[in-house]
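A favour, since you know our structure tokens better than I do. It will help me judge whether the discrete encoding reads sensibly. The space below this message is yours for that.
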Amino acid sequence: MNPGIIIQARLGSSRFPRKVLQEINGKKLIDIVVDECKLTNLPVVVAMPIGDRELIDYVSPKCNVWLDYNENDVIGRYYRCAKKYGFDPVIRVTADAKNIKHELILQQLENYNTYNHICYGNFCEVFSFTQLEHYYHHDKRPNTREHVTMGMLQDMTVDYDIDLK
């Protein structure tokens, strides 16, 4: 097991461009997220499109970065990054998750380890590299390519073994 956190970041949001570089109480949003993730003592990589030069220049002195060529194929960015760094499970955090807390990330990782199944909520998601690899190769739906775990969650089924005696 080699868990690692991948923070997806970009400047090109259509609803709020450059939001990850905006300040909240005197601190840039990307710094809030990166700093909190680092408190887990897990490896942290910020994955971003290769064209976001300003963001790359800002983040790279503070944290490992993974640069990828396709802004909209976020699942591909996650797959290639996780493969390079050998992350399994993969912990997904978005760069605008201003309420992320390191304790919640570690709790989700513990839940994943207990249930051996995708865990989501608390501003992060934890899933296996095998699951990521499957969706990277087989899921071609545009929304699931952009939103990483959307396909995993849509396709998720849970079997309950309940003893009603």
The radius of gyration is 16 Å. The chain has seven helices and eight strands. Helices lie at 29-38, 53-59, 74-85, 102-115, 129-138, 142-146, 150-154.
